[in-house]
């Protein structure tokens, strides 16, 4: 004789899990701001607005803000599950730390500094180029940053190889444009939080 009496075992309710890193604030505005400010001050030198002998004034900023703060933003992007942001911010944070080391410790010891630094900039340009492809699915604001940065790296590399101040100055102007685009994107991100809406457009692509 059956003892079921027609009762059914209720199905288990689906378990709701929060999104990865949902408890974390958006690290994007920090990473972009750190990148923008450091890029702007170095580009002031590259554009010829300040004598290159004063390039050292950006080194502390490159280490602390462009480097450490931006790298930290990349780690928080990992926690939030954002592969693009994690790769971009941690990589460019490491770039600024390596730039600080290069200028502070290595540049004066290289047999052909212009050629070596040119290849250094060119390699970063290649990395930025393929990140530009990925950025095309993020937003138009982020895409603008990566397009301008790719051009900046390649033009600065060309300037080093050609030992041309004129070409380097062109690269510096592209760097200034890159910094402004990154600042705008950071500004749009932080005001989206404080205004509780996207007050300044970034034109998302996803």
Automatic annotation (TrEMBL):
Secretion signal, residue range per the UniProt entry:
none
Q: Which residues cross the membrane?
A: 30-50, 56-76, 83-102, 117-133, 140-161, 173-195
- Intracellular or extracellular location(s): Membrane
Key words of the record: Membrane, Transmembrane, Transmembrane helix
GO molecular function terms listed in the Swiss-Prot or TrEMBL record: acetate transmembrane transporter activity
How does the record classify its membrane topology? Multi-pass membrane protein
Q: Which GO terms describe its cellular component?
A: plasma membrane
* InterPro entries the UniProt entry points to: AceTr (IPR051633), Gpr1/Fun34/SatP-like (IPR000791)
What family does the entry list? Belongs to the acetate uptake transporter (AceTr) (TC 2.A.96) family.
Query: Per its UniProt record, what PANTHER family does this chain match?
Result: ACCUMULATION OF DYADS PROTEIN 2-RELATED
Q: Could you identify this protein by its name?
A: Uncharacterized protein
The organism is Nocardioides terrae
Lineage per the UniProt record: Bacteria, Bacillati, Actinomycetota, Actinomycetes, Propionibacteriales
